[in-house]
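Exercise 3.2. Students should predict the tertiary structure of the chain below and write it as structure tokens, then compare their answer with the key that follows.

Predict this chain's 3D structure.
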Amino acid sequence: MKTSAICSTVTAVVLAMTYPRVMAQTTDTTATSAPTQAANQAAPNAGLTVTGYVEAYYSHDFTAPKTSQERPGFLYNHRRNREVNINLAFVKAAYTSDRVRGNLALQVGNYAQYNYAAEQELTKNIFEANAGVKLAKNRDLWLDAGLFASHIGFESAISKDCWTLTRSLLAENSPYYLSGAKLTYNTPNGKWTVLGMVTNGWQRVKKLDGYSGPAVTTQVQYRPSANLTLNWSSFVGADRPDSLRQTRFFNNFYAIVNPQGRFGVILGFDIGADRKPVMRNGSDVRVGSGSYVWYSPVVIARYKTSDKSYLNGRVEYYADPNGVIIATGTANGFKTLGYSLGYDYAILPNALFRIEGKVYDSKDPIFEGKTSTSRTNTSLTTSLAVSF
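Answer key:
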């Protein structure tokens, strides 16, 4: 069955079931994203709701040849070049009650095309599918299982919930989604969230062939006030077959400062390490000595220019000299600085127009150029996102 037919059928069924209770929903498109907190708390009014999101975009790569239809391979959002396309569109049905919750969202677009390329066909169009039960009557303790948006990082696939139009390098190259089972606890004062999850792997619905797994991921988030969020997330597992014995240990740190104020800042830092693979000498097998390390710092700032608009800027760096996450085949591996400047305007409460210019500056010539490879890449991206 085609994706369009699946989405139409699910939408019709859900609307038929919930028509008396479902109303059009408006979203503050300039509000700070808080995906983890929202996912961990039941809605105040129990019942079934339907929401949706569509983001159309146009991206122009000034560095690449005119015939090139794709942006660089380490990008998984807004990747099509010089054409109007859909980055992400989904329809979501969510059920909540005092002790039970569930979510089902079906997706189409370039995000699904590139991020889910390694998944089985029937799962490529699932943005979210999970069910949960509250384990304690008087405590905010939940057990959920299924496919989830990742709790790792401060950026999600939903562009309108992020401070910048396009994703940062550290977000593009860490999990956007995770599948498995998790326990989540929120303290009564709302200041702490603690999460532990057993997952199928590093952004995997289908477990990697040859990997016995599972992997473990955690999150500790502290919100001392409305003006500050501190977060540490981790991953321990592997994204290689067991035969290579390459354990992965990954940490994600970020701080969100003054998110609702006129001027706000996000400070982020990722660092990961894969143990070096086994070394074989005939029948002698030895675990590799040491680890391959990659890391990425990022600073994002935004300024509220009016009740409907924001100006944002970003400076980032990604170093992966051994090509663990981004393979280049060059002497220095992937060592790239990124800069972006963007402007957002909320046409309506649920319609957001954005424009962003971005420059990448690499130590080695890794970008497709008009005549040869280039050390720099320059692009301009615009988008229109509507939520309901």
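Discussion points: Residues 1-43 have pLDDT under 50 and may be disordered. The helical segments are 3-18, 35-40, 110-115, 169-172.
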